[in-house]
Design brief:
- It is a single chain.
- The protein has 248 residues and is an alpha+beta fold.
- It is built from six helices and eight strands, in the order αββααβββαβαββα.
- Strands 1-2-3-4-5-6-8-7 form an eight-stranded mixed beta sheet, sandwiched between helices.
- A hairpin with a 2-residue loop joins β1 and β2.
């Protein structure tokens, strides 16, 4: 048959490398989804005692949530988001949002008063976004009474720390362009940036009403990593443990 060209060998090697990388990424996502309680990675963050609030944060899979908890989360999302959806091309549909919030992969962090009354939650998932393993934040909702007291930032920080502990590449989320409060919170307060997959081509400006934002997560040093790598990683995690500023 003759000798294969160098380019052919290079292409084959590249495909093998990409396949191996994908396998590693899928394994990380699968492993993250099997963690019994991701809050065990960040035990000090189970309590939020700041700005006049005394809250506990707990993790729940959708299968473990009561009907009452599911209805509360849905109703809060509808109250906060229905108008924003209706101002977009997506529109608001109870059935579609309820199905999204109750899919098998849905994971939740719920913030409660000591009397067990819920006041805030985030719906997130460990998943693949193209060829990257990510923690995707689907929702973060807060009741009116506790807004601008730091709980929103606190919950996002927890997601970032969980993403670090589970070796996700980034935290991602989708936000409406016309939701200026969310845009300001994530971009200015939490330092998220427009992700490379966000549809930002000017040709489509009128066709897309949302932005995809993300924040890269520094990876854990490997077992053979030197002290400088460990120190660099430490510098990334520690600032996320500072007191949250007041935000929506």
């Amino acid at each position: 048959m003759g000798r294969k060209s160098v380019k052919s060998k290079e292409k084959k090697m590249k495909r093998k490398e990409e396949s191996a990388k994908m396998a590693v990424s899928l394994e990380k996502v699968d492993k993250a989804n099997k963690v019994p309680d991701p809050m065990d990675f960040v035990k000090p963050f189970r309590k939020f005692d700041r700005n006049g609030l005394s809250l506990t944060i707990e993790f729940k899979r959708i299968a473990d949530m009561s009907e009452e908890e599911i209805e509360w989360a849905f109703d809060l999302t509808k109250k906060n988001m229905q108008t924003l959806y209706e101002e977009s091309e997506w529109g608001w549909k109870d059935k579609d949002k309820r199905e999204e919030m109750t899919e098998d992969k849905a994971l939740y962090l719920i913030a409660r008063y000591t009397n067990n009354k819920p006041v805030a939650f985030t719906h997130f998932r460990f998943d693949m976004e193209f060829d990257e393993e990510v923690l995707y934040c689907y929702e973060i909702q807060v009741i009116d009474d506790v807004r601008r007291k730091g709980i929103g930032k606190f919950i996002v920080q927890i997601l970032e720390l969980i993403a670090y502990q589970t070796e996700m590449v980034k935290v991602m989320l989708t936000t409406f362009k016309h939701n200026k409060v969310a845009q300001g919170f994530f971009k200015n307060t939490m330092k998220y940036v427009i992700d490379e997959i966000s549809p930002e081509d000017p040709l489509f400006e009128e066709g897309y009403h949302y932005k995809i934002l993300s924040k890269p997560i520094k990876q854990k040093p490997n077992k053979t990593g030197d002290a400088s790598n460990a120190q660099s990683n430490k510098a990334v995690v520690e600032p996320m443990q500072t007191s949250p500023v007041k935000a929506s």
